[in-house]
């Protein structure tokens, strides 16, 4: 088998890259370890930055998003019993869109189908070879047979646990990591969202987030222990804890019902330097992880794909390698700024078990400052809607 760009991983990063390159006339093959049903069913991110929305439109997958996505011109921070609105539109002139990662992935698969894109599911034992040559290749098993895929470039879009990053020799990469001493317990329920916009609540018992997917589908999270056993969390227990972390007025409006999905996610910040090794390029969660507090994981995967697709299109169009040579530095510059924002928002709103009384007062003072200062709110809003590409 032969292609121009072999893409490992059929999550949003890999599918988006395949879609953009296909539109530019560049052949790709996507190799995905899981079944299509599995990939399409995963419940993950919910908020799209302005830049991600534009990129999806340019990739011809924006139609349903524009029809069904909810434009949000602001969100609220709940703190000390009050609600403080961050008016994104007034502060930055830009908005965000609430449209689930599940929907983005479905739209990308539908577009790949329509355009005849090659996506192989249930592939096993993917391994990359000859990364430092002009002709790298991949070996893998599919439907009981061994295969070899020859290509010009390999895009490692295989998430945090995929093999791409691990194939860069230890001495050629540097890893930076912070694991937070808590996780998020998330619930999806067929109830009306408690508010029109998202609410991020800082509370001494722990953080809570009220989000949504559509007017009849709510997504709520509460800070929990990272080793939390999901079996210990009945729906009633979840709703009780959520309610006590929200301002009284908001809690009184909370519509509860059976959960249709419940899961625990650990919180981690992680960056791999470099994002390029020979003809292998990492993108999305394969290269970095952010805690979900700023809703940046999916958006960061999209901005990587913007830089990578631009670089590859330039190379195939003119043979100019400046884009691919500069990819890692360009992407990492935005990655680090977004890591900083996600770390800051996580530090601001969560209850840290080991924080001293002094550190607790610092956190409260920062939240007070944020909700009183136009300058501080603007800095938050500018990062939340997404830094420019
Ligand atoms: P993905 O979505 O993990 O896709 C990677 C794909 O690679 C496949 N793969 C392999 N394929 C072939 N061979 C192998 N050996 C392979 N190993 C892995 C996987 O099956 C998968 O299909 O990474 P991508 O495309 O970079 O996209 C990134 C986003 O998915 C991610 O940043 C966000 O979903 C992060 N994230 C969240 N972000 C938010 O902004 N808000 C959220 O609420 C939010 N919730 C979450 C999340 C991530 C979670 N994970 C990773 C456990 C909740 C969870 C549970
Ligand atoms: C979500 O709706 O899943 C969501 C929204 C905002 C976040 C994280 C997750 O910051």
Could you give a quick summary of the protein structure above?
This protein has about 400 residues and is α+β, with helices and mostly antiparallel strands. About 40% of the residues lie in helices and about 30% in strands.
Your description of this structure?
- The chain is of the alpha+beta class and 389 residues long.
- It has a domain at 5-46 and 98-177 and 268-346: FAD/NAD(P)-binding domain.
- The protein has helices at 12-23, 36-41, 50-58, 63-68, 88-92, 101-114, 163-166, 235-245, 248-253, 297-318, 322-349, 357-372, 374-385, and strands at 5-8, 28-31, 47-48, 70-72, 74-79, 82-87, 96-98, 118-120, 124-129, 137-142, 145-150, 153-156, 174-189, 199-201, 208-214, 217-224, 259-273, 276-277, 280-282, 288-289.
- The strands form four sheets. The chain has an eight-stranded mixed β-sheet with strand order 6-5-14-15-16-13-17-20.
- α1 (12-23) runs parallel beside α6 (101-114), α1 (12-23) runs parallel beside α10 and α10 packs antiparallel against α11 (322-349).
- The longest helix has 28 residues, at 322-349.
- It is globular and about 60 Å long.
- The model has no long low-confidence stretch (mean pLDDT 97).
- Bound molecules: 8-demethyl-8-dimethylamino-flavin-adenine-dinucleotide and P-hydroxybenzoic acid (PHB).
